[in-house]
Amino acid sequence: MKVNTIMTNQALPVAIIGAGPVGLAAAAHLLERGETPIIFEAGAEIGANIRQWEHVRMFSPWEYTADRATVALLESHGWEMPPKDTSPTGRDLIEKYMQPFAQLPEVRQHIHLNSRVTAISRRYIDKMKDTNRESAPFVIRVQCDDGSEEIIEARAVIDASGTWHSPNPLGSDGLPAMGESSHQAHIYYGIPDVQGKYQQRYANKRVMVVGGGHSAINALLDLVNLQDSYPKTCVTWVLRTTNMQRIYGGGSDDALPARGQLGIRIRTLVEAGRVSIAAPFRIRKISTDETGVTVTGETPQGFETLQVDEIVAATGARPDLIMLRELRLALDSSLETTPLLAPMIDPNIHSCGTVRPHGEAELRHPEKDFYIVGMKSYGRAPTFLLATGYEQVRSIVAALVGDWEAARDVQLNLPETGVCVTDWLSDEISSVAASACCGTPSENVATPVAVQEVVSLNAISLSSTKPQPVDSQTSSRDCGCDDTCCT
Ligand SMILES: Cc1cc2nc3c(=O)[nH]c(=O)nc-3n(C[C@H](O)[C@H](O)[C@H](O)COP(=O)(O)OP(=O)(O)OC[C@H]3O[C@@H](n4cnc5c(N)ncnc54)[C@H](O)[C@@H]3O)c2cc1C
To answer: What is the C-alpha to C-alpha distance for residues 187 and 190, in angstroms, rounded to an integer?
Structure first.
């Protein structure tokens, strides 16, 4: 990679951080407008985050997972869209859509793989300086795979770096549980490929899945499939909430049928005893001995432990903001998204995930010509959909080329979610509901055990976290949502 010599702002490219689906869509919109993108991808291949869950089938059909400008450029080279009403796996999305796009001659010259952006600032201007700030080009520090560093200049920056590589920890307070960092060998963050390369890691093991979103449900369904071939595989689902209606989601009312099916399938398996539930169970400590991993959690009955072999942490993700430290950002204090976007997507309020169309205006930061888009634009909110990201970058690119009418004309036709899955935010607390594991009790059964005697937990006071009784739950609607967005 070459450091670009000092150029006038307009001659500089627009930098895109991340060659995920939204970063590539930003490139397509820039090319369509006659602009020059420069795309930095930390991974050795495009779509590095999606490759970690490539075995998972998406709930959105192709109609909602492909971007218009990207499709237009692909089609100009003879590409054909897969059937619109079928849903791709993560691998399909890469191999049938993102990779063909990235390989187009007019695109591939702009993509830099193995190029991790580590910091961004303005030329000669630190965060405190006002003078000439808006006219100064961005300077972008890029670390290459050989350890060398480059400085690249750009006239605007679109951060589409996602959040998948920055998972939430297991502690229910948002901090790592005690012992979490020293027991990483037993924890997988995300959705392991249980049927494929991780089969032996989980076969006939006692596996705990933590989290109440679609990622957790996908992991649970895969583990139950593994039980068919390895019947001693024992699956325990740990949740902070007992509002299962909310976890199971919209079911047959979900406008994305594949997503509704996830909730229906897991509910059936729970009711059949293939998955045991420990809820509410707020993880405080992880330790190991010769019998395996001991997970200590707080329940209405006090501290209890679960004995397992492996933990799958499907607890969502959060934006990594360190590389943006030198930029002037305006971030919502809770969600870490822009203040205008936050109330539209706050899962505390909009547990159904419905979102009004939004674009450049809602994503603007005090730092002119810098935008966070895609999954990362939602901060800690888990309800992002690709169709939203594609409209974000269309609007932002229009603004960057001065087409303000198009930038403001934001349109988004998203399916109603009908889903209320935001486990890591829920406050509902009730009693432990731990049913028999794997249908029949066995030596593998992960049964919560009252362990009042181990409640020292390094002398942390626990009295301030007394759970509420189950009848103080506030779900006011049939779907389990406690807000008014479900209609
Ligand atoms: C299991 C799963 C299923 C999903 N299913 C759907 C679905 O059905 N429908 C839907 O609409 N959405 C779905 N989503 C949500 C969302 O659409 C995806 O997370 C999508 O991948 C987000 O795209 P993105 O481009 O914003 O980020 P990502 O796909 O996460 O891409 C970010 C890219 O940036 C790179 N990067 C990160 N940091 C740096 C850095 N410092 N420098 C350079 N590069 C960097 C990463 O390597 C990565 O390639 C799903 C998400 C998951 C996890």
So the answer is: 10
Atom of ligand 1 nearest to the CA of 118: 41
Model confidence pLDDT, tens digit, residues 202-249: 999 999 999 998 899 999 999 999 999 999 999 999 999 888 877 887
What gap in Å lies between CA 364 and CA 156, rounded to an integer? Answer: 12
Check if 251 has its Cβ closer than 6 Å to any atom of ligand 1.
no
pLDDT in tens, 391-444: 999 999 999 999 999 999 998 766 654 433 333 333 232 233 333 233 333 333
Is 330 contained in some domain? yes
Task: Output the residue whose Cα is nearest ligand 1's atom 3.
Answer: 58
Q: Classify residue 444 by its DSSP letter.
A: T
What pLDDT band is residue 1 in, cutting at 50, 70 and 90?
low
Q: How confident is the model at residue 276 (pLDDT cuts 50, 70, 90)?
A: very high
Task: Say if residue 160 is in the same domain as residue 15.
Answer: yes
Quick: pLDDT tens for 131-171: 999 999 999 999 998 989 999 999 999 999 999 999 999 99
**Same-domain check for residues 16 and 160:** yes
CATH number (domain holding residue 245): 3.50.50.60
**CA end-to-end distance (rounded Å), the chain:** 52
Please work out whether the CB of residue 56 comes within 6 Å of at least one atom of ligand 1. yes
Q: pLDDT at position 475, please? A: 34
- Whether 367 is covered by a domain: the verdict is yes
Ligand 1 site, residue 88, Cβ cutoff 6 A? no
User: Is 58 touching ligand 1 by the criterion CB < 6 Å?
Assistant: yes
Contact predicate 86/224, CB 8 Å: no
Residues in a beta bridge with 115: 144
Question: How far does the centroid of ligand 1 lie from the alpha carbon of residue 47, in Å?
Answer: 7
Q: Are residues 35 and 154 in the same domain?
A: yes
Q: Classify residue 430: in a domain, yes or no.
A: no
Helix (H, G, I), strand (E, B) or coil at 237: strand
From 345, 376, 408, give the residue that closes a domain.
Answer: 408
Q: Which residues pair with 187 in a beta bridge?
A: 311
Within this chain, do residues 287 and 336 fall inside the same structural domain, yes or no? no
> Residue 382: CB within 6 Å of ligand 1?
no
- 367 contact partners, CB below 8 Å, separation of at least 6: 327, 328, 329
Q: Give the range of the structural domain holding residue 260, as residue numbers without chain letter.
A: 181-315+449-480
Residues 95 and 48 grouped into a single domain: yes
Q: Which residues make Cβ contacts (< 8 Å) with residue 351, sequence separation at least 6?
A: 246, 420, 422, 481, 482, 483, 485
State the total domains in the chain: 2
Q: Is any atom of ligand 1 closer than 6 Å to the C-beta of 281?
A: no
Residue 432 lies in a domain: no
